[in-house]
Amino acid sequence: MDTAPGPGLDRRRCLGRLAGLAAPVLAGRSLVPIAGAWAWAAAAPAQAGAQIEEPLSDAVRHALQAAVEQLDPPEPEFLTAEERLAYLRWLSRASWQLRRRKPEPQARVDFLQTVWYESRRAGLDTALVLGLIEVESAFRKYAISRAGARGYMQVMPFWTRVIGDGDPDKLFHLQTNLRYGCVILRHYLQRERGDLFLALGRYNGSRGRAPYPNAVFAAERRWRLA
Prior knowledge:
Elements: H1 7-18, E1 25-26, E2 29-30, E3 45-46, H2 58-69, H3 81-97, H4 105-121, H5 126-137, E4 144-145, H6 158-163, H7 174-191, H8 196-204, H9 211-224
Parallel strand pairs: 3-4
Antiparallel strand pairs: 1-2
Helix pairs in contact: 4-7, 5-9, 7-8, 8-9
């Protein structure tokens, strides 16, 4: 059933218009926010919707291609010692929160560091991206939805043809999947003029319906405590 967003979501729309407008500094550079064959036996179906392939202008397609092209190592650098300490405190708390989903400590650190890096690179809130991953794949690297979406952020394979090198198997690579997912979400956020509710619906293929955005917002709140 289609339902209109309640009053609580109006605040989200306003926050969405403001989020990520400033370019974060990562690895010593200012990054401007952007305008989405193996281990099959272990891949369980994910309960995600399907992003819809839509026509892109040449300018948008080239911008998205440039955004996913180069995978720099996800190693954050900080301007001050205080920023680094804040990051390490967050990493410790988030790792503890994720321990049941990812029991191996180094795997948790690698995952969280990459989420932090890629979300900031795209001008997105890290807690929001973690909430989206929780809803989309339940933190399963090899998740595949009934629609064919792949990996942590459930990226549809057509994106590798439209803006990548055409190899959908790369969507099971940690940083590649997060790079595509964050770039695609940022693209949808710009298409919806900063309306996070509609951007999340577009990401899930359920634009205008409340259940999916509400689920992501609820998961985001849990991660924001970290």
